[in-house]
Design a protein that fits this description.
The complex is a heterodimer of chains A (about 450) and B (about 525). Chain A is α/β, with parallel strands linked by helices. Chain A is built from 17 helices and 14 strands. In chain A, strand 11 (about 335-340), helix 14 and strand 12 form a beta-alpha-beta unit. The longest helix of chain A is centred in the C-terminal third of the chain and has 23 residues, at about 430-450. Chain A is globular and about 75 Å long. The relative contact order of chain A is 0.12. The mean pLDDT of chain A is about 95. With about 525 residues, chain B is α/β, with parallel strands linked by helices. The two termini of chain B are about 45 Å apart. In chain B, helix 6 runs parallel beside helix 8 and helix 10 (about 225-235) packs antiparallel against helix 21. Chain B has 21 helices and 16 strands. In chain B, strand 15 (about 530) and strand 16 (about 535) form a beta hairpin. The chains are: A alpha/beta (about 450), B alpha/beta (about 525). At the A-B interface, strand 1, helix 2, strand 3, helix 3 and helix 4 of A face helix 3, helix 4, strand 3, helix 5 and helix 6 of B.
Chain lengths: ~450, ~525
């Protein structure tokens, strides 16, 4: 497996990728658009893009992922895609009857310079129907950027500040996480008795129940009315800087809703931070049930710490998820030695900071030096591991090749997970999600210990 | 329910007028009393329609080139295209030299905004240099994605310079996603260049063993190719190359030494089959290793072609022993499947091939079609001269193979060839419509709206399709099976494959999970009571 990967690391200056740890913007935009109720995502470009994105999302969620395409041919690439997009708008509303059509661009339509907002303005859109769009060139950023850009489009096209005084309600931008995570975050906020609007919200859409009937637009998703009302909220919580801070900033500029940018609430510290922000902003007590959950989590952490304390770990995936996982494994006493994301990671000079700075700061506090890289690829990660092996690899399904090649226990977290099911239903966020993560980490390590144990060392109690 | 033209019209009536006019030409109900039934195929998908189709890049790199294990395939473009065609088609491959097995690698130039503005040729050159330094492959392919063609990167020039610098073949494929109307354009582009630049470059003049064959259009999904090879080798054939499942550059170079080319997926590789005949005089035989009878018929046709007593005897012996082994098992599954109905919609050949297997299991196919076929795939090769070339097909460069003066050799005499053609499908392919029952429906480029409508009308017991449809169908409570990826099972080809398919399909029907769809409280009233003489108690 991956026998062609040499241990010796040669400098690669081309900027090309070998075994990428990211993909392109449009798939993120498509996923975000699915989080609007009765919305059909539309891919403006060649039909292959739309097909690939639907394929990939469907494999991760094992649920229908509906989206249409402008079906470019060479002619439309030369003469521009205006006619194709206008025909698409007409056909989509006539045949598939969504309330909203959310268009994202592809590298093709970006390269030829289609002016999507002008095309939409001159298109014939029926009363009460809505067309929004996001520019998502594939040659900028990653799928996370695309998710962020489509979420921004929801704000720019729909959000309005209509009241003189802000409502006592919170906007929650959950970032590129599974519907199970979105449900869990909503449960936390609900249990604090705070009014909220989560957007986008794919729960109910890509984890819809089996009823014997196919619903093109299942019950889930944020309604247009709700997105409109985000402009009247008192606060926006942007969970995960990479996927969520830009739309939150835009909402602040557009509707004067202040934003708090927090980590994706993976693990105890980030969940504490989320609840504390809600508590302080809305003057609510943390309910007893959450305190009990937290206590249970800490109990589990102390009960099991010896299974993972000091174990080395390599973590890769999307930046917000990797940040959360890194923080949590540090809380468990584990030692991250390789941390990598494929998404470009901002810079130390920018106001938002950088992925590498964030991770290094956490590691430095813990007294750990590690390989940390944004805009990296899995070839790099594999070479790092060859040079400095780890006890556990954490990442999406693509990690299984490295795990097999190097014979390392492997735990699947993030996007995409193509070879296992149920993951998208069960949260990794909040205290409950943290418990699940501990179960996954310790089971992975203990299963391996059992497998490797000699007969005489094979034990009943561990 | 009997399907008729009026019911079809009711479905079409729900479309806007323009769409209706277009879609009408892509659908027909099989009527054998009609001599010909023309269908429109390989034309543009209507913008806004939820189609299952992919793009030229998907057909070129994703289907044809990707499975070649000992070449490094570089995708020149933004990251997505390379990423999505990375290990997603289940083309199994095992290399004799693990240091030359690149099947699990995905290499992309990951073009950034500056590359779009200033051109990506320099970056591509650097990536090739790095690939040579790290992997030292014997050959490289470069596949273009949409923006590459638009900004005018000269991949051909980059390839040529890299060949000169590194001394290995670097093949450039202009398979930008917008070319043509589906994956089909990409197949053609890949075929042309493999033929022009790889096939025939090997040094062998003759195959090292008797009965040498190439297996074309077999991508070894779920190990299909390995099962077919197992049977062929047992009979005594020498498999020169498989294009391209578990395929290797080294083997493909010597593909000219085969005495016969077998064509499994006609759509994706018929160009190479034809060109091999022109260039080297090697006939091609349409085979179908999906289904027990299909496999038997293909093996017998091959035996007829080679006309060797020993080979024929061995063919029959292998068939007999395989049948004796699998039939009892197959019969068990047949009991579960018998009497059921199916929709069969996928790709370029599977929509047709799998109908045999369904029918052997007692399952009738009510609707079938292809994602990216041409008219001949539905109507038979005889209609090829009548197919009009439109602007979208004209954009695909045409490569004409010429006779290789040194290596051209008639494998059978012209008289014998004519005699064989009357018996076996040499250079011939009957379209899907010939195998379908009267009243069944054939749909080209089936879309989501039609999928829902046809299911509601005909309520099939199983729908074999791709991943994008799978869960839509299942949500309707209907068993669904992916025929692109086999739902991560397989092989489905050959004798063992038929049994595996029967097992998987039966499992889909027999699974108790379907019984839980309706919750018990939906069938029982909330208040339970009894009616007495005084009224409801």
């Amino acid at each position: 497996m991956l026998d062609c990967t040499p241990k010796e690391i040669t400098e690669r200056k081309s900027g090309g990728m070998i075994n990428p740890a990211k993909t392109c913007q449009p798939i993120g935009a498509m996923y975000a658009a699915l989080g609007i109720h009765k919305c059909l995502p539309h891919s403006h470009g060649s039909q292959g893009c739309c097909s690939y994105h639907r394929m990939h999302l469907t494999r991760h969620f094992r649920d229908p992922v509906m989206a249409s395409t402008s079906c470019f041919t060479e002619g439309s690439s030369v003469f521009g895609g205006g006619a194709n997009l206008k025909a698409s708008i007409q056909n989509v509303f006539h045949i598939y009857k969504p309330d909203v059509m959310a268009i994202h661009t592809t590298c093709l339509t970006e390269t030829i310079g289609d002016d999507v907002s002008s095309i939409i303005k001159t298109a014939d859109v029926a009363e009460g129907k809505l067309v929004i769009h996001a520019n998502t060139p594939s040659y900028v950023g990653s799928h996370i950027t695309g998710f962020s850009n489509m979420t921004k489009a929801m704000v720019s096209y729909i959000a309005e500040s209509t009241l003189p005084v802000k409502k006592e309600q919170v906007n929650i931008i959950p970032g590129f996480v599974n519907p199970g995570d979105m449900r869990e975050i909503k449960r936390l906020v609900k249990s604090m008795d705070i009014e909220y609007i989560m957007f986008p919200d794919t729960s109910g859409v890509v984890d819809s129940p089996m009823t014997g009937e196919f619903e093109m637009y299942p019950e889930g998703g944020t309604t247009v009315e709700q997105i409109k009302d985000t402009g009247n909220s008192q606060l926006t919580l942007a969970l995960g800087r990479f996927a969520s801070s830009d739309p939150a900033d835009l909402l602040n500029k557009q509707c004067e809703v202040p934003a708090a940018v927090l980590k994706t609430p993976i693990g105890i510290k980030a969940t504490d931070a989320l609840l504390m922000t809600l508590r302080n902003s809305f003057a609510r007590e943390i309910p007893k049930e959450l305190e009990i959950e937290r206590g249970q989590l800490v109990d589990i952490m102390t009960d099991t710490h010896f299974h993972f304390h000091g174990k080395t770990v390599a973590i890769f995936g999307d930046p917000d998820i990797v940040t959360g996982i890194t923080e949590f494994v540090l809380s468990l006493g584990m030692v991250p030695v390789h941390v990598l994301t494929g998404t470009p990671g901002g810079s130390s000079n920018s106001a938002a900071g950088s992925f590498e700075d964030d991770i290094n700061e956490m590691l430095t506090t813990a007294g750990i030096t590690a390989n940390v890289k944004s805009a990296g690829d899995l070839f790099t990660l594999h070479q790092w591991i060859k040079n400095q092996p780890v006890d556990l690899l954490i990442g999406n399904t693509y990690g299984k090749y490295i795990a097999r090649a190097e014979d390392i226990p492997f735990m699947r977290v993030g996007f995409p997970i193509l070879d296992r099911s149920v993951h998208s239903y069960l949260p990794i966020v909040g205290y409950q999600g943290a418990m699940r993560l501990i179960e996954m980490i310790s089971n992975t390590l203990l299963d391996r210990a059992d497998r490797d144990a000699k007969d005489e060392d094979f034990e009943l109690v561990m | 329910m009997e399907m008729n033209e009026a019911k079809l019209q009711e479905i079409l009536d729900q479309y806007p007028a323009k769409v209706q006019k277009n879609r009408k030409k892509h659908i027909f109900i099989k009527r054998s009393e009609l001599e010909s039934q023309q269908i429109e195929a390989n034309t543009r998908t209507i913008p806004g329609i939820i189609t299952n189709r992919g793009c030229a890049y998907a057909g070129c790199k994703g289907v044809v080139l990707g499975p070649i294990k000992d070449m490094v395939h570089i995708v020149h473009g933004p990251i997505g295209c390379g990423y999505y065609a990375w290990n997603t088609r289940r083309n199994k491959a095992k290399s004799d030299d693990p240091k030359q097995n690149f099947i699990n690698y995905c290499i992309s130039t990951d073009m950034q905004e500056s590359d779009i503005v200033f051109g990506g040729e320099k970056k591509l050159t650097k990536v090739i240099d790095e690939v040579m330094e790290i992997f030292k492959p014997k050959a490289i392919t470069l596949s273009a994605t949409c923006p590459v063609g638009l900004i005018g990167d000269d991949m051909g020039a980059v390839a040529k310079a890299a060949e000169a610098k590194h001394g290995v073949q670097v093949l450039s494929f202009s398979c930008e996603g917008y070319k043509g109307v589906s994956q089909s354009a990409g197949h053609h582009i890949a075929n042309n260049i493999l033929m022009e630049k790889v096939i025939g470059t090997g040094e062998q003049e003759e195959a090292p063993a008797k009965f040498p064959i190439n297996l074309l259009g077999e991508y070894n999904i779920g190990g299909d190719g390995w099962e077919v090879e197992r049977i062929l080798k047992e009979i005594g054939y020498h498999v020169v190359s498989v294009m391209t499942g578990d395929g290797s550059y080294e083997a493909i170079k010597n593909a000219h030494t085969a005495e016969l080319n077998l064509v499994q997926c006609h759509r994706s590789i018929n160009y190479i089959a034809e060109m091999l005949e022109t260039k080297y005089g090697t006939p091609w035989l349409k085979v179908n290793f999906i289904g027990i009878q299909g496999t038997i018929e293909s093996l017998r046709n091959m035996a007829l072609y080679f006309d060797d007593k020993e080979l024929t005897l061995k063919t029959e012996a292998v068939i007999a022993s395989e049948l004796a082994r699998i039939e009892p098992v197959f019969e068990q599954y047949k009991k579960i499947c018998e009497g059921k109905t199916a929709f069969c919609f996928v790709g370029g050949s599977r929509g047709h091939h799998f109908q045999n297997l369904f029918s052997e299991l007692g399952i009738e196919t009510l609707l079938a079609g292809y994602e990216f076929a041409h008219r001949d795939d539905y109507e038979g090769r005889d209609v090829i001269p009548t197919i009009k070339t439109d602007a979208d097909s004209k954009n695909i460069p045409h490569y004409t193979a010429e006779v290789d003066e040194k290596r051209f050799r008639l494998k059978v005499s012209p008289e014998k060839l004519e005699e064989l053609k009357a018996k076996i499908p040499l250079g011939q392919y009957n379209g899907m419509r010939f195998d379908m029952k009267d009243g069944s429906i054939i749909v080209d480029d089936l879309n989501h709206f039609e999928t829902e409508e046809f299911i509601k009308l005909l309520k099939p017991d199983i729908f074999t399709s791709g991943i994008k449809d799978k869960y839509v169908i299942q949500k309707m409570g209907i068993n669904s099976k992916q025929l692109h990826s086999y739902d991560y099972s397989g092989p489905y080809a050959g004798f063992n494959g038929a049994v595996k398919f029967a097992e998987d399909i039966s499992m889909g029907f027999a699974s108790p999970t379907w019984n839980f769809i309706t919750p018990p409280w939906k069938n029982q009233p909330l208040l339970e009571g009894s009616v007495t003489e005084e009224g409801v108690a």
